[in-house]
Amino acid sequence: MQENPLQQLRDVHLPLEPGWWPPAPGWWLLTCICIVAVFFLGLTAWRGHKRKRPIRSAKELLEDTLTDYRLGQIGALDYVNRANEILKRLLVMAFDIRSLATTSNEDWLHALDRISGSNDFSQNCGYILGHARFAPTTTTDIETLHQSIGRVLDRAHPTKTPLLFMATDHA
What we know:
The protein is mostly helical. It has a domain at 52-169. The chain contains six helices and no strands.
């Protein structure tokens, strides 16, 4: 008698489970997309940091000027003139707002008000940055002025601030 032919078959062995390497093409694509995204995010952050370098430098110069004033190395008028020069350099040279190069007195004060979003320069202590600094008996509170100038520097932006003045230049 014949034996059962099924007994001659070998046992069923399951195939090996797929390993983690090499990953499927979808994972390769996702990895490439993530690498490119991280690269562009890093590049954008670096450019933003680089663009804001003039603002950081202006803040440092302003703090050094205030320190010199507090130590008595310069007078109040010297502080005002240096602070005005720092603001002009930042806005005209670094931000390339050429329309502010020749502005003075009321126009300059209104421009600073526009950047700071206040009226600290046209109506408060910042008036000294206009022609008032040339008057023989003008005085101001340097600490308050320093805070007002600090607000200008805090609100200044390398791309947004020039747009404030482009809209009015063409109007």
